[in-house]
Amino acid sequence: MKALSILGSTGSIGTQTLEIVDDFPELFKVVALTAGKNLDLLVKQIQRHRPEVVALADPNSIAELQERLTSCGAALKPPVLLAGSDGICAAAAWASADLVVTGIVGCAGLLPTLAAIRAGKDLALANKETLIAAGPVVLPELEKSGSRLLPADSEHSAIFQCLQGTPWADSARLSTGIAPPGLRRIQLTASGGAFRDWDPADLSKATVADATSHPNWSMGRKITVDSASLMNKGLEIIEAHYLFGLDYNEIEIVIHPQSIIHSMVELADSSVLAQLGWPDMKLPLLYCLSWPQRLETPWRRLDLTEVAELTFRKPNPAMYPCMDLAYAAGRAGGTMPAVLNAANEQAVAMFLEERIQFLDIPKLIERTCAKHQQELRADPSLADVLAVDSWARQITAEAAP
Question: Rounded to an integer, what distance in angstroms lies between the CA atom of residue 51 and that of residue 35?
């Protein structure tokens, strides 16, 4: 049985992971949970899964959680309760955990992910910002600890699954900085987001409601805006570079409105392998948890005759300026991807608060990255990454029109 520590248990990744645990109770158990402010759901998760430790991001919520758990009665053995950044990191490195699912959104997931790596834990990585902001820091830590990093987001999981048919599959060591033998090119598929069928000239009129209306599925507001700007794929390009070791020239974005092909790899002999399935995060999460095995599920099976057609097109840079900003930041390397990520998080937050317009997002990101150019650290420390993350957020906020 595999013991799990789930970071961000009340979010989308965490709740879907717990659904998988419910589906396969003989294979997985929960030993650690971390969460934010959704105590109603967290208490239910604790009652059902009986973790050894629970950590809250907000120390001020500990007393309320303790009171709620006490009211559950003697039938519930109380877990160890921790709080704050140190508490989240302790839960990530919890001794009895075999695999850590990193579902915390944004750069807040960096420190607990590093804590898990330093404790020698394997990771199901759903927090892309860990590698984007701190790839030069994380890669040496993985090498030192021997932790295995498994991608849990659908695109990088698709690439990982396609590579299982190559000579590299036996080792499956990602984030080494060296591309797997025979891998020539990666194609990351993108839905195109809320504005994929808009005229670029109309983006100046885009509202928050427009940007958060995804044509294919329901997601959190921040990631839905990133999908509309294509920054989500820009960030995934940087993550793919660190995971699979390919040069940025060999990592492409393809608009695929049906979201059935989750990504593709081209091998040295020109063969192209793709992973297909209905858009559902539970499948890549299950593969992370069960790898290298395949578990039988009762889930809906893909019927291509039902899909009827699969279409593809190149992304229009005029529609998606964030795409080129991400390529530029990735190629600059060092601390620049951390600045890109932080500037985007700040700009998107201001857009969602209706303090800026949609087209201000790439303008603010570009301005912040340009200001950082002279201060770029090519070989950053963790302290450097955290410092530029804070700096970029402040500079972006101050530059708002």
Answer: 13
What residue spans of 245-335 are helical by DSSP H? 282-290, 304-307, 321-332
3-class SS at 183?
strand
Q: What is the pLDDT of residues 5-32, one digit of tens each?
A: 999 999 989 999 999 999 999 999 999 9
Total Cβ atoms within 10 A of residue 108? 17
* CA atoms in the 13 A half-sphere facing the CB of 128: 22
Q: What CATH number is given to the structural domain containing 47?
A: 3.40.50.720
Domain count within the chain: 1
User: Is 104 domain-assigned?
Assistant: yes
Read off the DSSP letter of residue 182. Answer: T
**Residue 63: φ, ψ to 5°:** -60, -40
139-194 residue pLDDT tens: 999 999 999 999 999 999 999 999 987 777 655 667 777 888 889 999 999 999 99
Residue 131 placed within a domain: yes
Q: State the amino acid at position 141 in one-letter form.
A: E
Range of the domain at 58: 2-147
132 burial via Cβ count (<10 Å: 0-12, 13-18, 19+): buried
**CA-CA distance, 302 to 54, in Å (whole number)?**
37
Q: Is the pTM of this model over 0.90?
A: yes
107 found inside a domain: yes
